[in-house]
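User: Assemble these into one structure.

Assistant: Restating your components, then the assembled model:
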Amino acid sequence: MSEAAVELVSPGGQTTNPHGSVETPLAVQGVTVSYGEKPAVFSVDASIPAESMTAIIGPNGAGKSTLLKAVLGIVPRLSGSVTVFGEPFTRARHRVAYVPQRASVDWDFPTRVIDVVMMGLFRELGLLKLVRREHHKTALACLERVGMVDFAHRQIGQLSGGQQQRVFLARALAQNADLYLLDEPFAGVDAATERAIIDVLKSLKTDKRTVVCVHHDLATVADHFDHVLLINVRKMAEGPVATTFTGENLQKTYGGRLATAHIDQLNLSAA
Amino acid sequence: MSGFLDMALMPFAFPFMQQAFIISVLIAAPMALLSCFLILKGWSLMGDAVSHAVLPGVVIAYIIGIPFAIGAFVAGMTCVVGIGYLKENSRVKEDTIMGVVFSGMFGLGLLLYTKIQTEVHLDHILFGDMLGVTWGDITQTGIIALFVCAAILLFRRDLLLNAFDPQHAKAIGLPVRVLHYGLLAILSLTIVAALTAVGIILAIALLIGPGAVAFLLVRRFDRMLLVSLAVALFASFFGVYLSFFIDSAPAPTIVLLMTGMFLVAFVYTLRRNAREDAAREVDSRELGVGR
């Protein structure tokens, strides 16, 4: 079949290679990062399946955030490689959107909600960085998706924590990426925000995008995610939630820090 | 009445005053724009460091017979690159490193100055000599001011994004190192431009004051740039003007005016915030009753 040799591009922007299999959105091989003498992430391999929602879980200080930052080139890798849709990250960065931890920026900054969302359109603004009507409309549409359109002209310091998190998500939506990397998007947010964020992430998945979240709440892993990566400096386990999110793997990852009683309450897969 | 007008216009009659007005307004513009970025990045001490660090550059330029501006710029860049290198290769915090580097360079400058006989007064380097500026100084300051303002306005979104969220900037592929050292190069240039007029010690006031006042008063970056510009131009112009009547040096008068404006803005925002809090409380109470 001659058509089989033609590259197909689906509406979500997924590239299908000639063999008909979908390119892996994110593949990490042997990534090691070190801030001092002790490695924060040691030789981690991971392969995130297309159109999945993946949770990266592990105890505090396990290197979850660091792994995301190493993927994005925010912190330098000592070794290892990162490929995004089959290409090195630097060549595919326009297909990736990142939502950093909310506490990583100064919310007292003199800027409005809409201006922050507009930062997601940065590469479309051209050399002179002129904001046109269409950019404004896109930014408002992204705010609409996270339920924050009424706050577009507020100064960002006037928002609650959950609202700030939604603004960050709206900025990522404005980037119209195929791979979304989120660092603890549910940390310290109210229930309404958690609901709103989950709805947006699920709509991204429906739209054939891939979502990866650093996640801290073990109780909701099974509800929201379909793929899971457990790390504690090294990779402990990776696979579908149905087969990998088990008490045994959690015990291995968290060690003594997770009481057995706690594990019993989780919605775990049968080992 | 005409006597009063004559009196009011008198400062403009003297050539040295005209030149002082021109140069003070010329340095106010780049200082004001740059000031906003320094405030938002928490770089006040960096401004202080660079301005002190240019001293050895000025003295060495005198010794080897090159323009002061070149020596000062090279010294300023040596300072920022040195701070960057030491920070990346040690556990010591950045403010500590800045203190070590700039006091060292300032000390070296003073030592060199006392060892050689120069015709330049140390006072003029440290505190400026606004009433003694030449048209050559004005031309040089004007060119630098134009360049600095153009660069800041052209790259203001890049610089702003990098100041607000450096991780996002890095992730989307902005050249963050170029932006970092570019801004520091602009800082060094601006201090060079201000050298003859306000000197290295008082330059820091112009680098911090306008942005600080603007940050207190407004909550949008574009407006912050405008308010900062207005504050710097006002303080510079009336500082020179007032100094004529109270028979003081212009540069410290400008600095004092700026400090005064900061205090007024501070008191104003305290009262404004109290009013807003009260209004919000009434709002929520009414909402509570309504339900």
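The two ends of chain A are 43 Å apart (CA to CA).
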